[in-house]
Amino acid sequence: MLNRLICRLETLLFGYRSVVLISIGAFTAVMAMFAAQLHMDAGFEKQMPIGHEYIKTFQKYRSDLFGANRITVVVRARKGSIWTPEGLARLYKVTQAVTYLPNVDRLGVQSLWTPNTYVNEITEDGFHADPIIGGTITPDQLTPAIIEKIRRSTTQGGYIGTLVSHDEDSAMITAELTERDRSGKVLDYLAFNHLLESQIRKPFEDQGYEIQIIGFAKQIGDIADAATSVLGFCAIALVLTALAVYWYSHSIRFTILPIACSLTSLVWQFGTLGLLGFGLDPLAVLVPFLVFAIGVSHGVQQVNYIVRELSLGRSSLDAARHSFSGLLVPGTLALVTAFVSFVTLLLIPIPMVRELAITASLGVGYKIITNLIMLPVVASCFSFTKTYADRALARRERRSAWLRGLARVAEPRYAPLVLALTLVIFVVAVWQSRERVIGTLEPGAPELRADARFNRDALSIAGNYDVGLDWLTVVFESNSASCDNPAVGFYEDDFASAMQTEPGVVSVQSFPAMLRTYSEGYNEGYPKMNVVPVDASNYGALAAEIGRVKGFMNSDCSMTAVHLFLADHKATTINRILGDVKRYRATHEMPGVTIRLAAGNAGVLAATNEEVAKSELPMMLNVYAAILILVFLAYRDWRAMVACCAPLTVATFVGYWFMKALHIGLTVATLPVMVLAVGIGVDYAFYIYNRLQLHLATGQNIVKAVEHAMLEVGVATIFTAITLAIGVATWSFSALKFQADMGKLLAFMFIVNLLMAMTALPALASLLERWFPRTKPARAPGLLSH
Length: 786
Known about the structure:
Radius of gyration: 32 Å
Largest sheet: 4 strands, antiparallel
Structural class: alpha+beta
Strand order of the largest sheet: 7-8-6-9
Number of helices: 25
CATH class of the largest domain: Mainly Alpha
Oligomer: single chain
CATH architecture of the largest domain: Up-down Bundle
């Protein structure tokens, strides 16, 4: 049935070559128009896991708590302090500029110049709050006496270390962003980042003052700007690949063909994204080029097959037809496996990852047409001389001669040794990778290098201010009568005290801490009144006062909050703090009160990390299940399932070991690379085992079958792996750290999968043939018996 179907398809495609190629050309032209409209599209909420406990908390109370999507701008005097007329005037101008940026919540902007920054003064009449800088003061009125008063009020208000640095050479402005404006238009983060540079940094940064800017909007914008370098490095990889293919084939046409076919599918992929209304997320910008690498891999196998057929004296048309029918089964298996691998990313309920899954799946799906159909059909239109065919045959013999020695891994005396060594590597890799981290391992923006402007700014701000740039908000839920229930305040105060001493917690701001401050203020500053009030009416009155300050409670006291400011957002830090909170919640229960996790940017990161960790194993199991099913359907032999998948499993764990050694965490950016590594590894396994199965079906013993399979596809497989590894290794010089890390990881995985496919696979296949002799002859896959 399958043979007849492939035969009819071959007759149809090559019988109507002109129609096929014109249709492909027309479709490519249409998709190119839509591809030209594709743009970068970033979003804060796209990174939030749908339905996660932490995200539900964040969304339920987002209007009452500190926003997780905020920008922080610091005005720093390069010499001297910020307490000068010029320094405070500069701070005023920057505050105004930040306030009037698009999508900024103007009521949420805070600096020394905003009315929501006040000092609580204790007078004879009790507690009194005045702005740090009165509304009647303007920058041109800043006399030494007024500046000294502002400085004193800032110290009394506790803003040294929060809005003013410890060494008092800089001051901070914070602003919360809304992702949609009143008209419903979504914030363009890339354009907003350019506004930050053109309207904030460029006008106000000079030889006297430095402007430091951090926040998600700045981070994702810098990543997107740096992502333009991706095109440059992909172009370098393209040139290296082209030179290598030319060295391999000694034909300009065979050099251009696989690259042109892969680029065609890239145009289709981008065009389809445009039609679907998707953009290209900066964190997913590498995915199309990773899929492009898969296309080149299959293209080289097609070129190898056609050149081999030409060297045997066949015409271009016959060689192309044989290549189409001979590689349709293994090529489709490999691409369908890669397709399923990327589709399984849909298991992760993060919109950005799901968009990435759709992007990658489209690209891989199109490869079936461009690499398995378009390439051989175009190649059939070429003509080659007998001289080229003879030279191709001589090159093939010369290049593959050494593979006879490598094929001896299938011999009875060597196969057990190779398998034992593979088993040792597998055990060590599993052991070494057991403590790998889900999430980021570096402070600052892990996607950028340590010397990037964003990370330098983040390090400077973190070192000069007490309030960490990353915070985890813990919510205490109770009934609406909690404004008159001091027990809730005592319970929350105990929690805040317990968290204050935890490693990784820089400082704590909480509802009960505000109660303490207000209680002392209303009692003429008597230190012993720095407590949570025990009297219900007094407790309620102070709660009403605190309700005027955003971030600590909602209107009816059914929600109060504790903000844990963290030293960094490393996964190890966040996970440790979350563990501490969960242990406290489990051992210190209070009837009627529920401790909910978690808001703040660290809460969003924690939710993302947990979803990646939870989805990774099911996703990988689904990928391997798909591989096993496809291998069985193609070869109807359980030996093929074991021989193809066991080496792939070893390579996967060696990859995890490599990630741990290079301090690369498993994140939404690195997870697709591991999926891709599985897809590439399957490619190598399928192409080798396909030829192996064919020779077993002709009656050859396993050692001879391995030798012939190695001679026929070994050089192409090795060539493809090394070429692609060298190409992506150039990414190591990218300004994007995560592109550099992905280049190292991909290059490593290409080589590891190659070694497994060229050594462990034939050795294991040989042993399985001896340990479990066949009762029936092996089946030739597809049309490979011709």
